[in-house]
């Protein structure tokens, strides 16, 4: 049976650097920022491509993760609804990042020959780096979502 003691409440202040789901805030922030930078530095081809969706997802998750981090850091997360909001946000971020990662991988595969003809391998390597970082961000958000859901279930 799950207990509802104060030990199960969400951490505040510097305690977020030692609790298992919340320790993923910093890597999510860093890897999400790398996705944003790498996608912004690639070449956009004139035909329709989903790089706008990838940029939206990376900027949206970067900003909301930063906001979420500061809410936890300041201690404004002590209401009963925050554990469910935390799990819900991170599952939404997983869905967004997974769709963006698949779209980015598709565009990278489709632009392989075009990138090699125009700029050599530089742009193609940036695209591959963006795809890898996007999947790493998806994994980080997924792990955070699972541990947040476990914490929500316990509260």
UniProtKB/TrEMBL annotation:
<comment type="similarity">
    <text>Belongs to the MAL family.</text>
</comment>
<keyword id="KW-0449">Lipoprotein</keyword>
<feature type="transmembrane region" description="Helical">
    <location>
        <begin position="130"/>
        <end position="150"/>
    </location>
</feature>
<feature type="transmembrane region" description="Helical">
    <location>
        <begin position="91"/>
        <end position="109"/>
    </location>
</feature>
<dbReference type="InterPro" id="IPR013295">
    <property type="entry name" value="MAL"/>
</dbReference>
<dbReference type="Pfam" id="PF01284">
    <property type="entry name" value="MARVEL"/>
</dbReference>
<dbReference type="GO" id="GO:0016020">
    <property type="term" value="C:membrane"/>
</dbReference>
<dbReference type="InterPro" id="IPR050578">
    <property type="entry name" value="MARVEL-CKLF_proteins"/>
</dbReference>
<feature type="domain" description="MARVEL">
    <location>
        <begin position="16"/>
        <end position="153"/>
    </location>
</feature>
<dbReference type="InterPro" id="IPR008253">
    <property type="entry name" value="Marvel"/>
</dbReference>
<keyword id="KW-0812">Transmembrane</keyword>
<feature type="transmembrane region" description="Helical">
    <location>
        <begin position="20"/>
        <end position="39"/>
    </location>
</feature>
<dbReference type="GO" id="GO:0042552">
    <property type="term" value="P:myelination"/>
</dbReference>
<feature type="transmembrane region" description="Helical">
    <location>
        <begin position="51"/>
        <end position="71"/>
    </location>
</feature>
<keyword id="KW-1133">Transmembrane helix</keyword>
<keyword id="KW-0472">Membrane</keyword>
<protein>
    <recommendedName>
        <fullName>Myelin and lymphocyte protein</fullName>
    </recommendedName>
</protein>
<dbReference type="GO" id="GO:0019911">
    <property type="term" value="F:structural constituent of myelin sheath"/>
</dbReference>
């Amino acid at each position: 049976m799950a207990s509802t003691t104060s030990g199960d409440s969400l951490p505040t202040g510097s305690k977020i650097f030692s609790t298992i789901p919340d320790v993923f805030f910093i890597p999510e922030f860093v890897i999400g920022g790398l996705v944003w930078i790498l996608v912004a530095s690639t070449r956009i081809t004139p035909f329709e491509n989903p790089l706008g969706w990838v940029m939206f997802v990376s900027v949206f998750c970067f900003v909301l993760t930063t906001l979420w981090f500061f809410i936890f850091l300041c201690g404004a997360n002590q209401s009963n609804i925050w554990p469910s909001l935390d799990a819900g946000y991170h599952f939404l971020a997983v869905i967004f990042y997974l769709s963006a990662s698949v779209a980015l991988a598709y565009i990278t595969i489709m632009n392989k020959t075009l990138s090699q003809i125009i700029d050599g391998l530089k742009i193609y390597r940036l695209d591959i780096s963006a795809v890898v970082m996007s999947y790493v961000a998806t994994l980080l958000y997924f792990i955070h979502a699972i541990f947040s859901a476990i914490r929500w279930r316990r509260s």
